[in-house]
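User: quick one - fold this with flavin-adenine dinucleotide bound?
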Amino acid sequence: MDYDVIVAGGGPIGCFAARDIAEQGCRVLVLEEHREIGEPVQCSGLISERVLEISRVSNNVVLNKLKGAVVHAPDKNILNLKGDRVYGVVVDRGAFDRDIARQAAKAGAKIYRGKKLISFDYLTDKLIVNTTSGEDKGCAFTCKLLIGADGFNSTVARLLDLAPAQEKVTLFAAEVSLPGFDGHLAHIFLDHQLAPGWFGWLMPVRENIARAGIGCSPLMNHDWRGSPRPMFEKLIAKYPIFKGLEILKTTGGIVPIGYLERTYDTRVLLAGDAAAQVKPISGGGLYLGLKGASFCAATAIKALQKNDFSRAFLKTYQDAWDEDFGLEIKCGLKHREIFLNMDNREIESLTGFLNKPHWRNIILKYGDLDYHSRLAAKLSLAPPWANRFLENGLKALLRGLAQAAECRY
Ligand SMILES: Cc1cc2nc3c(=O)[nH]c(=O)nc-3n(C[C@H](O)[C@H](O)[C@H](O)COP(=O)(O)OP(=O)(O)OC[C@H]3O[C@@H](n4cnc5c(N)ncnc54)[C@H](O)[C@@H]3O)c2cc1C
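Assistant: Sure. Structure tokens for the protein plus flavin-adenine dinucleotide:
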């Protein structure tokens, strides 16, 4: 019942951190509230090949390889971005999670399923973690360090009063049958009336089978009442590409968007969605989450070696991930702000503007599923985007001046 590290959350990020720490010979326990690892699936399973590499997950989970995208503007004009390299792969997300959990168990981590962390308390030289699980009796475990990898609604973060992500985007997603739909291109639908502050998507999985979905941001004030499902119905009614669609399985969830200033406390680290390590433009959380988990594991191992679990020492975790991809998140947030401030007309004029060989080549050359900033930096030079940047920059400057004046008088 006594561990070096307890990880709350047996998702991909928790199991990845557990694997790296257990590989160093430490005693690690993973607590997962659900009875099955990888279930229920709340993901569309689009990742880069980089994610497979760093996670060491077998290529057997790959269902399709995507070589570009078609962007649909609100006026139904399209921007065809068909490339000749693999930009992303569609995976069986349940199998992906189970593979990482197997790796963690093989490294020596114990995984308790059906055990939910409900609270923890500080003792003199350790933490006591309390769990419950439906009809089972609760139990208590002790550890030197606790990792909160318990998703966007992290109990660990809440118990510590750590500030959550500024924005939570709600998604509805489905596995669908779609006669005649196949190939290697993702379809993205931009329309602030249908998908306020987010987008709709359709991705081929295999012949006649696809994944589709839509997201809505609470920051956009449209007639959206909490569930994006009706917006999904409107999306499929609007575009002929969805003709004949039948929903096979539905899912959904929340993606946390923002930059968290503090993802640590005394004896505690947060990783993955719990730390909002998510790409603000696409909501993809696997790449940055796994990178975060790797810094989290490295810090945990050092803390155990030094026997130092102070807040001051654990800040080195925040510093490490911030240096690696903090700027990527902040840059994504800036571009997201511009997107949120655009209306459908501007989106149409931007996609129209980019529909020239020069810009299409730039998108295909610099497009990277994990590093949106690389392409965003190039697109910032496109006049419609550049004007918005200038406008936002000026507004920020004026806001800063007004705040400074308020402070002075
Ligand atoms: C509809 C949808 C589509 C998405 N599509 C993509 C995509 O295509 N590509 C991509 O990269 N990302 C995608 N994401 C985001 C991605 O799924 C997450 O970023 C990723 O799952 C984060 O992993 P995690 O381990 O941090 O959190 P989670 O996967 O949420 O895992 C957290 C785990 O903790 C468990 N847990 C929670 N609380 C407790 C507790 N108190 N005690 C014990 N266990 C607990 C949960 O049961 C869960 O298993 C999508 C998200 C949604 C909602």
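One thing worth noting: Residues 8-14, 31-34, 42-47, 116-117, 149-151, 155, 171, 173, 213, 251-253, 255, 272-273, 278, 283-286, 289 surround flavin-adenine dinucleotide (CB under 6 Å).
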